[in-house]
Amino acid sequence: MSAAADPDLRQFLLRIPKVELHVHLEGSMQPGTLLRLARRHGIDLPASDEAGLRDWFRFRDFDHFVEIYLTCSRCVKDPEDFQLLVRDFMAEQARQNVVYSEVHFTIATHIAYGRNGQEIQHAIWEAIEEGEQRERVGMRLIPDMVRDVGPKMGDVTLRWAVEGRGRGVVALGLTGREAVYDNEPFRGIFAAAAAEGLRRVAHAGEHAGPASVRSALAVVGAERIGHGVRSIEDPALVEELAARQVPLEICPTSNVRLGIAPSIAEHPFDRLRRAGVAVSVNSDDGPMFNTTLTEEYVRLAEAFGYSAPDMAGLALASLRHSFLPPDDKARMEADFRRQFAALGAEILGQAVEV
Question: Across-strand partners of 226?
Fold first, then answer.
């Protein structure tokens, strides 16, 4: 029986504790939240009700995706708007028992729109602290730069990241089209980030091939690779990634929607995993790709015949690949294992051990 047809396994995957490492705050905005913000600020949208916006959110192509993403960013203006976005995100993560998330956030876009970066930082951190108390889930930020924009806002982003280390910032990120824009202009910014003790991540190996992954490792000093799925085209790179245990943050449905893989069943996730590459499962921009982290787990289990222990192992892998302090990871891993066993016994009739 496939995972999609097995309600017990689906329920198990919904309720087990999970960690998400590749998700964008602006791209996680729900249509209802966008409508509320647009009405608050008198901004016209392509639809006037939530049902219409849900239809507009339905993925068509990359340009349409960017249009939605930028519209969401444009509607977040005041500190209270950012707090609403964080609260909604954390509530959805809590619904899926995603107990910890490291979330990309493009602060430079909002500063370019004239927003106050310090006010945004204080507002977001306040909302995170409130969410941790209310929802019992954690969230940290990865402020990122966009290759398409170039390094001109890099210093602003780096400064915001450094100032925010005590307010939830854990890393500096690089996004944008790696097939069109080079990493080299960002080398100095990431060197400065490393000197400040910030972790580094970069999107690569998605729209561009293995060379972009090698560049992200060499130029950015990336400690995790966002996507990285086209590494499969270079056996030597796959071997290197496995040997070095550089984690790939894989977003299967996003890759299918954007044409990187023909289907989940043909996605290189399983081949990379079997080759010993460190992988994690992620949603990327869930509402825009009509997915959730739980649904990504379900789709992988169905496509590759993964068992409940296999999926629990993937949840543990995401935790281990996070930038949490070692003591927190150890404590959470023990709790994960307790929950796997208890939920397995309750839902599947047998304790799940990893």
Answer: 203, 249
In angstroms, the Cα distances linking 78 to 72, 115, 130, 253 are: 13, 8, 18, 32
CB count in 10 Å sphere of residue 95: 13
Report d(CA 348, CA 142) in Å as an integer: 36
Predicted local distance difference test score (pLDDT) of residue 1: 36
Residue-range definition of the domain harbouring residue 198? 7-348
In a domain, 124, yes or no: yes
| Dihedral sign computed on CA atoms, order 176, 148, 256, 240 | negative
Contact 275, 246 (CB under 8 A): no
Region class of 105: left (phi > 0), else alpha (psi between -120 and 50), else beta:
beta
Q: Is 2 contained in some domain? A: no
Paired tokens of 269: 């996730």
pLDDT tens digits along 179-197: 888 999 999 999 999 999 9
Give the pLDDT confidence score for residue 179 in this predicted structure: 83
Active-site residue set: 206
d(CA 198, CA 204): 19
Q: Which two tokens stand for residue 185?
A: 């202009």
Query: Within 198-268, where are the H helices?
Result: 210-215, 235-244, 252-257
* pLDDT, tens digit (0-9, with 9 covering 90-100), for 275-285: 999 999 999 99
| Total domains, the chain | 1
In a domain, 354, yes or no: no
Residue with tokens 């496509």: 303
User: Which of the residues in the chain have pLDDT under 50?
Assistant: 1-3
The token pair at 37 is: 């913000």
Domain assignment present for residue 1? The answer is no
What pLDDT sits at residue 5?
56
The residue to which tokens 């069943």 are assigned = 265
Rg, the chain, Cα only: 19
Torsion of CA 217, 173, 69, 134, to 10 degrees: 130
For residues 121 and 130, the answer to whether their CB atoms sit within 8 Å is no
What is the CATH number for 335? 3.20.20.140
- Please report the pLDDT score of residue 240 as a whole number: 98
